[in-house]
Specification:
single chain; five-stranded parallel beta sheet; binds pyridoxal-5'-phosphate; six-stranded mixed beta sheet; about 425 residues; globular; alpha/beta; about 15% strand; Rossmann fold
């Protein structure tokens, strides 16, 4: 498979270039040259598939023969080794729990696959690969877990100071070895900007072979199609379903669009955001105005300039009419989010995290206008990752899974920098010099 840049459809890059460079030099985004439909036999036999077999089929189709099939099979069996339970809240409302991986958020799908693909593509390189990643909370933990101990790869995680929950911070800052955390005095958008600048600036490239693990990396997007197939398999609806996706950088939703292109029967998408509603606003009015993000209780979606917007537009040939036809957008306040958390807990005894609650809010608005449709809401994180907000909102204690509990006593180790590219550059150069 070859990849092009969304800024130049005639450009052509190999899988290795696309994954290890992360961003094309023209500052576009990599897209696969074609999105092949999966075979009719496979789609008809969905009920007998597993996350592993789906992941293998999808990645074989999208990566072509660039990775030997036996290697790809091993990568998929290691990456997709946890379930995606679908829970019914009512006869047409389903919640797909994407948080059963090691760091309890859906980012595990992308990060575990990407880490293994990168390690394979990097296998013959003698210079270490340095991965820079900006996180609004969950990416950092998933990437840390995915890359921990991988030979030849060093990871630097940039996160906004005070912008992530305590447990999320522990997930970023307590690994050690080849995983380094940098606390940035700024917002997630600042972190994202620093990472992008580092890539586009030649001066750091003199010292490092740089790559990124953000959802701008195509190797993170491909594995996120897996749970769309697995959720449709479990719901087994007679009609094509609606997917409701709590969204920030829109990697998750973009993966859903790719799954639909590959033949999965999806009727429509609902993009649910918090008050950082640049995309819902675009869908409604046709004007795209990225702006600085505001902090909310669904912090993994505090994104003012979604990095996958260019990919979504590319999939719709930049047509507002076409994208509007496939995606409805809704934005919600923290008050709306908490109301939904309380209401769903009262009515269904189901504990939502704030991101999933934004999803349910989006589904309620959409389905009141489109009765009779079947919705699958993606619950993107375990509620315990947002312990304080969830406990305060529901007025009860919640159980903390062991994977989080064991982090609580660990000691945070992180560097601290101003939100300034020159400062980051110097920090990284000093690190390399062992200062
Ligand atoms: C990252 C994240 C999101 C947003 O996903 P995007 O792919 O950036 O749109 C939503 N919820 C949680 C819990 C996340 O970690």
């Amino acid at each position: 498979m070859y990849f092009y840049s969304t800024k130049d459809k005639s450009s052509r890059y190999s899988l290795e270039q696309a994954v290890l460079m992360s961003l094309p030099p023209d500052n576009g985004l990599f897209m696969p040259e074609s999105i092949p439909a999966l075979s009719k036999e496979f789609l008809a036999d969905l009920k007998n598939q597993t996350p592993f077999s789906i992941g293998y089929e999808v990645s074989k189709a999208l990566l072509g023969d660039d990775i030997p099939h036996d290697v790809l099979k091993k990568i998929c069996s290691e990456a997709f080794n946890f379930p995606v339970p679908v829970v019914s809240l009512s006869n047409n409302t389903y919640v797909a729990e994407l948080f059963h991986g090691p760091t309890l958020a859906f980012k595990d799908f992308g990060a575990r696959f990407m880490a293994r693909v990168m390690a394979y593509l990097n296998r013959n390189n003698s210079t270490p690969l340095t991965i820079l990643v900006a996180t609004s909370g969950d990416t950092g933990g998933a990437v840390a877990d995915g890359f921990y101990g991988v030979e030849g790869i060093e990871v630097y995680i940039l996160y906004p100071s005070g912008g992530v929950s305590d447990l999320q911070e522990k997930q970023l800052t307590t690994y050690g070895k080849n995983i380094h955390a940098i606390e940035v005095k700024g917002t997630f958008d600042d972190c994202q900007r620093l990472v992008k600048t580092a890539f586009l600036n030649a001066d750091l490239a003199k010292h490092y072979r740089l790559s990124s693990a953000n959802s701008i990396n195509i190797a993170r997007l491909i594995p996120q199609t897996v749970y769309y197939f697995d959720a449709v398999r479990q719901v087994n609806s007679n009609e094509p379903v609606v997917f409701v996706v709590p969204s920030g950088n829109f990697g998750n939703l973009t993966a859903g669009l790719i799954a639909r292109r590959m033949g999965l029967p999806i009727h429509h998408f609902v993009a649910a955001t918090n008050i950082n509603d640049v995309v819902p606003e675009y869908l409604e009015k046709g004007d795209y105005f990225p702006r600085p993000s505001s902090a909310t209780i669904s912090n993994a979606m505090d994104v003012g300039n979604p990095s996958n917007f260019g990919r979504m537009m590319d999939l719709f040939s930049n047509s507002w009419a076409d994208i509007k036809h496939s995606i409805s957008g809704y934005g919600f306040t923290d008050e709306d989010t908490k109301e939904v958390m309380v209401d769903v807990y009262k009515k269904s005894s189901y504990i939502l995290d704030p991101h999933g609650a934004v999803g349910i809010a989006g589904w309620r608005d959409y389905s009141s206008e489109h009765p009779g449709e079947t919705g699958i809401i993606l619950e993107t994180a375990h509620p315990a990752k947002f312990l304080d907000v969830v406990e305060q909102t529901l007025g009860r204690k919640i159980e903390i899974p062991e994977a989080l509990e064991k982090l609580r006593s660990r000691q945070k180790v992180a560097g601290m920098i101003a939100a300034d590219y020159e400062v980051l550059k110097q920090y990284l150069i000093d690190q390399k010099a062992g200062k």
